[in-house]
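SUBJECT: A protein chain and its fold
Encoding: whole-number codes for local backbone shapes
Chain under study, with its fold:
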Amino acid sequence: MPLIEAFTNGNRFATERGSVGVWAVGKTIEDLGARVNESEPWFRQSLRTLVEHRTVSPGKTGDAEIRAGAEAARRMMEEAGAQAELVECRGTPSVLGRFLHPEPQAHIVIYNHLDVQPADPSGWTQADPFVMGVRADPERGWLYEGRGTTDDKGPGLCAVRAASWAAAARLPIDVSILWETEEEIGSPNFAEVVQSRRGQLACTAVIVSDTIWPSGSQPAISIGLRGALHATLRLRTAGKAAHSGLVGGAARNPVRELAAIATAIHRARFWQEGVIPPTRAELDGFLRSGFDLEHWKHAHDLQLVETDVPLEVMLRIWARPTFEVHGLAGGYTGPGVKTIVPGDAELKISFRLVPDQDPHTIGRALVELVHALDPAVEVDVSGFLQPYRGPTEGPVHEAIATALTEATGCNPVSVREGGSIGAVPILADLLGVPVHFLPLSLPEHGYHAPNERFDWQQAKVGMTAFAKLLERLAR
């Protein structure tokens, strides 16, 4: 029985697709290797178009830039052969492109995101991070440089190219490409998007490629995401800063007090409870992942780390919760020392949480601890992102593993992902299907960092793997 049959019926195909059975049914995408190799000009120009739309979602003051980028993406999907539209919501729209067959054996939804992080040019070798640079590389073929190249526009284009080939080859599979524009701010309106197109998105499985291989020489499949919880702590102790020689020792110092609270949170147990350790099979995947500690440190420009034991590092970044301080603002931060006692201060923190932990429970415990330490501190908790435990077996997981093997010549290993993707639990919950991962990015590509890039070698792997995956799922 076709996998899609559980989600739809023949009447839908008769109304949406015209007469059933008029297309020939393909089995493979012919000359796939040549198609991939000849795609570099298309890939370069398409990526340039997307990168040079400044689709920054964090801190945006208007929707015009994101809307322009979404419209460019819609046209790009349409030119590739999809039925494409913008799906509106209370925030910025998502882009939905649908490659349809009259008699599909399966329906796959491929999720990526179009929005990006801000980019301060002062930290980049490029004069403008939103003008894509291209340079030759002896190992990777071409490097595509600019904000959004790897997170997440380059991987998204790989799926579009493969879906267009599958449609042209008449493979009996429906492919829906869904690009969000609010992922970098926690997907606050994405549930509305999915809900409004729930019938069209009813599918066999969702596949996401917004994750990373630990090593460029070892393909990997992500099988879990950490969740997240963001919070801002504020403390005001005076109407203005005052001379420390006049009030020091008697006036409360909000910077010092918030620093002490950060230390207390770090030592607390509430955010470390409810953790299920990785299985032996997961640990084996970690150890075979090709994770190289020195390469990882170099890729992220880390000079001092908490531990130099590679397995311990992998456990900390993939399988354990974390507490981080992102900023402590207050007082004088100019050159020299200005001897004042600040009147107010602000502490920005977050937690990364692993599967089986509940962000809302952690948030309530945070508020209770802080108010027990100092009732004067205001705690603003936001950014609740659920962790996600992905499938480790089944036909789709096996098809992804086979596709990556065929694309790289190397069997992939299973690892967890240290980051969070708010859309993933939304898709799993509202569509009632598992969310799988087909990672394409590398640590050195620079997620959220200066000098972000993607490369032609990974683009070729991505187009090949997605094409092979669609061939297999269409059988």
About this structure: Confidence is low (pLDDT under 50) at residues 1-23. The longest helix spans residues 149-168. The radius of gyration is 24 Å.
